[in-house]
Write a structure and sequence with these properties.
Layout lengths: L6 E15 L11 E7 L2 E6 L10 E14 L4 E13 L2 E5 L8 E5 L1 E18 L3 E19 L5 E4 L9 E4 L7 E4 L2 E4 L6 E4 L8 E3 L2 E4 L8 E5 L4 E11 L2 E11 L2 E4 L2 H4 L12 H5 L30 E3 L2 E12 L2 H4 L6 E15 L13 E2 L8 E9 L1
Parallel strand pairs: 20-24
Antiparallel strand pairs: 1-4, 2-3, 4-5, 5-8, 6-7, 8-9, 9-18, 10-11, 11-12, 12-17, 13-14, 14-16, 15-16, 18-19, 19-22, 20-21, 22-23, 23-25
Length: 392
């Protein structure tokens, strides 16, 4: 291909591998006892775990194929990669009956598949003596699916972050590995300001929303899959500009598709019963009143106790965002100036992080944990840094 001047680099690569994940419980395959308990002020022992004699490693089979390329003497370069990973004997804490004295136990529950495409593309838009401008883009699409559950039964599980069971998920064959599970909120009835819930069952409806049977009582509604945490596309954009000693670097991150779940919202979105709770500003701006009958949130009533506390689509929000994660502006002081004070190089700069964010849902930081849930963690703060660098 040496006679094809357009192509400066072309490489095809692939790989295949198998790896195992050791169960987090070192002795999960046998029942254990502890002797830190007391009974009638006397030392005693108790069972500390539920044994699973069939517990084994989780095994993943991973393959990928990629094309690396360079064009126009590497003015443009990139990589397109496809990957596929099948995981068997998936390790998961499974809820069990509380009469055992435990809430969950570690088991090998099934099989999942992760596959997707990753694209990296970069290029020099302008390349000259005084001016250089480069641009890079990354994009990833990943689909994560439960392919098989041993026994065929759905598995309900909760976000382990913070030990507060902040969101409910379900493993169901053919569905996402991060499928949110809960009640489907139908919104607020304009005439009364009441919460309305889609029934999703054969019980008698008390009202309809968009032609679907609904109810004012969440107790009568059935839980369904309400959303998928996984985005359709995510990645970053970076650009660098240099002109006569002045430099500008911008780094963006983005996410398209998917949802986040506002677990903290169950506390700050109180509908009136817990009158002493502090609410965020949007809770005042979007509340139903006789003068604001098209509001997104229900009327505050002291008799409404638990509607807001349900794990439901009410607290689920679009995860799309574009964020300027980092910006750096620098200037290299000319040699004819710094040589007079016997300095070989000098640079002044400004660096800022998380200075600007465009989000589909603006109430909280769109960058949440790996399970797509927001609790009481501190959001990412804005930082500003100024500095001077010298080399003698």
């Amino acid at each position: 291909m040496k006679n094809i001047s357009l192509i400066s680099n072309l490489r095809l690569r692939g790989s295949y591998g198998v790896n195992g994940t050791l169960p987090s419980s070192n002795y999960g395959w046998r029942s254990l006892s502890t002797y830190t308990n007391k009974y009638m002020e006397q030392p005693g022992g108790a069972v500390s775990s539920i044994a699973d004699p069939l517990l084994s490693w989780e095994t993943s089979f991973t393959s990928n194929i990629a094309l690396e390329f360079g064009l126009l003497d590497q003015r443009i370069s990139g990589t397109v990669e496809y990957f596929n990973r099948n995981s068997k004997d998936l390790l998961q804490d499974v809820p069990i009956s509380n009469i055992t004295g435990f809430y969950s136990t570690l088991k090998n529950v099934g099989e999942i598949n992760n596959r997707g495409v990753e694209i990296e593309l970069s290029g020099d838009i302008i390349k000259s003596k005084d001016l250089n401008w480069s641009l890079g883009i990354t994009a990833s699409h990943v689909k994560s699916t439960v392919t098989k559950l041993y026994g065929g039964q759905d598995i309900i599980w909760y976000d382990p972050t913070g030990d507060d069971a902040r969101a409910k998920f379900i493993y169901r064959e053919g569905q996402s590995t991060l499928a949110l599970y809960g009640l489907e909120w139908a919104g607020v009835e304009d005439a009364t300001g009441k919460n309305v819930w889609f029934l999703n069952n054969d019980k008698t409806a008390t009202t309809t929303v968009d032609g679907r049977p609904a109810t004012y009582r969440y107790q009568d509604a059935s839980e369904v899959i309400i959303g998928n945490i996984h985005p359709k596309l995510f990645g970053g954009i970076n650009t660098n500009l240099d002109w006569k000693g002045l430099s500008l670097a911008l780094n963006f991150t983005y996410k398209l598709g998917g949802y986040t779940y506002d677990a903290a919202g169950r506390d700050v979105s109180d509908d009136g019963y817990y009158w002493e709770r502090i609410m965020s500003q949007d809770q005042y701006d979007n509340r139903w009143t006789p003068e604001h009958m098209d509001a997104k949130l229900p009327q505050r009533m002291a008799t409404d106790m638990e509607d807001v506390n349900q794990r439901s689509s009410r607290h689920m929000h679009k995860a799309d965002y574009l964020r300027l994660s980092n910006v750096t502006i620098g200037y290299n002081i000319p040699k004819n100036i710094i040589n007079k004070v016997k300095i070989s190089s000098a640079r002044v700069y400004f660096n800022g992080s998380n200075l600007w964010t465009l989000a589909a849902y603006k109430v909280y930081d769109p960058e949440v944990n790996a399970y797509g849930t927001r609790g009481w963690e501190m959001p990412l703060g804005k930082t500003y840094t100024f500095g001077v660098e010298f080399n003698f």
